[in-house]
Amino acid sequence: xxxxRIPLLRRLLSLSGxxxxxxxxxxxxxxxxxxxxxxxxxxxxxxxxxxAITHIGTAPAWLARDVPISLCAVCLMRLATWLRRQKRRxxxxxxxxxxxxxxxxxxxxxxxxxxxxxxxxLYPYGDAYARVHVAFYMSITVIGCVFCLMHTRAAAxxxxxxxxxxxxLFFALTHNVVLMAIAANMLLVAVAMxxxxxxxYRDFARLVESRRSLRARQAELLxxxxxxxxxANLDSLTGLPNRRRFFGELNALVPRDNPGALRYAVxxxxxxxxxxxxxxxxxxxxxxxxxxxxxxxxxLSGPHITLARLGGDEFGLLIRDLTDVQELVLLGTAICEAxxxxxxxxxxxxxxxxxxxxxxxxxxxxxxxxLFEHADYALYFAKTHRRGGITIFSHEHESQIRKFGExxxxxxxxxxxxxxSLHFQPIVDVMTARIISFEALARWHSPILGAVPPSLFxxxxxxxxxxxxxxxxxxxxxxxxxxxxxxxxxxxxxLSALDLASPDALxxxxxxxxxxxxxxxxxxxxxxxxxxxxxxxxxxxxxxxLKTLGAHISLDDFGTGFSSLNCIHRLPxxxxxxxxxxxxxxxxxxxxxDIVRSIVDLCRSLSLACVIxxxxxxxxxxxxxxxxxxxxxxxxxxxxxxxxxxxxLDPLTRFDISVYCGVGSTEKNS
Length: 670
Ligand code: C2E
Ligand code: CA
Ligand code: CA
What we know:
The protein is built from 24 helices and 17 strands. The chain is an alpha/beta fold. The protein has three domains: 3-216; 243-393, Reverse transcriptase/Diguanylate cyclase domain (Alpha-Beta Plaits, 2-Layer Sandwich), CATH 3.30.70; 405-656, Alpha-Beta Barrel (TIM Barrel).
């Protein structure tokens, strides 16, 4: 039978506010009660034994001996069971605790009734002392027990009611003045005890509640601070870890005891063609592409693989516990393939690729900084030699870095005016057998390193921000040569991507041209596709400014980059220069011939001049003629040669192209 169904008990519980105490409060009450329960039993047993002893001989044996022994045995058993269960008390659920507290309440009620009945039953036996002893036993024991039940208000009130009410009534009715006084005292003390108990219990409940709310506030604070730190470590656009978290994890990857077995790799990923998408379709499209790329990269992350967004279209990669390089290559390939899948934006299909540079610990660097720097270098290499693929930093790269370092040092200390010079190579119209212009090509003779090819020093100048000064020195030389020349030859001058990217640098070049006295329309500026793609909007502005000045614009190395028709169409171009890689095997390679033919057609329909670079043999000239090419440049017509030789400043006097074109012509310039 569920004792809580008894209305009195239920009312008592609800009166005491414990029909539904909070779980936290129940647990605290349980803990406090658990500590005091043994004391309660000890008081009860010792006091009972004392009373039993004083009544042995006067009261019947069953009452003075058997009943107290049975009651004390029940108490001892209860105590033993409780103590045994105590060990598991921390594993109890809230429901189990509530159930145990209910059982305890019922037991206290039952034992209270039994002990009170026993005490009152003993009263008629013995002398006056023995009777007073019974009264004393009952009152002092109930006070002791109620104190032990201080934290369990319901049990304390229940026990007070069960003992004090019958006790007071019983002794009030004895008509013995002493006992009546004891009853009255007991009642008073009980009332005072209940009042103190209620106020103490309220404070206890409040304390528990404030501790609970403090803990809840602390938990909330912890949650907020965790949320904060995860926000501070996540990239909001892609949901990937951000730069801060990436470098945090990278720095934590210090080699442990057996560095040979624990290898890790650092990677830098860059999207090829992302800027173009941003420029052509707008930033919303760019964001969408980044989001999608982030999603694809997140899908490839794992317990040993961290992929993070470092900023812009650059992502970082960390691979822990790497076992072999093949694993890295497979992962890199999977990333490249994932990034290469088409992206859809408002019905348009956008395509781009991702290049990855990787460095493996310890071969590729021994500190986190070194590894990242080398991965970045490998990326630079991937972007220039293996776009859309992976490059792992190697010894070869290391020696290249060293070489670049030497070149940079020499370049920084070079007297550019003195050490730099220009060579000129003719550009020829094979139909008329005329030189139509010259390409100016930079030459550097360093007193430390000797002759350094432009393919190297231009790159180094770009990386070390010396390019603007270098371009200015070279343009100055070109303009002086053009001004001093006997004939008004046209000159093609190469510009770096960085020259286009800096409005200030460009402004200085324009002002040099204006001041030089050379007609701007004698100048053609050659820019590569990659220079334009890196920052399309800015490059477009720069080229427009040069065009407005009156100069011509030529797109260099065409076919090696990523130019789309859309891109070409939006630039103020005059010429396209077909990269020499298509010409080397033009006689035998049908594919190369098809490409050149279609570029020639494209130029014709866009009304652009088409220049073929790298023509080395008469046979190549012949094939190219048949494909409709008219303007060519290459060793076959003339190697680049110095303009400032002892025989004067006019480079044109050196070339007699009639020999090469097979067309009689005495005119050597346009
Ligand atoms: P580029 O603009 O494509 O220049 C043409 C390169 O092809 C030159 O190499 C030239 O010597 C070479 N060349 C010409 N005809 C032939 C041929 O028939 N066969 C072969 N195999 N090569 C031929 P160079 O002078 O070593 O210049 C290399 C690159 O350095 C240039 O490529 C250009 O990108 C850069 N560069 C040169 N001078 C300057 C400069 O003043 N400023 C800037 N920014 N870049 C320059
Ligand atoms: Ca060029
Ligand atoms: Ca070229």
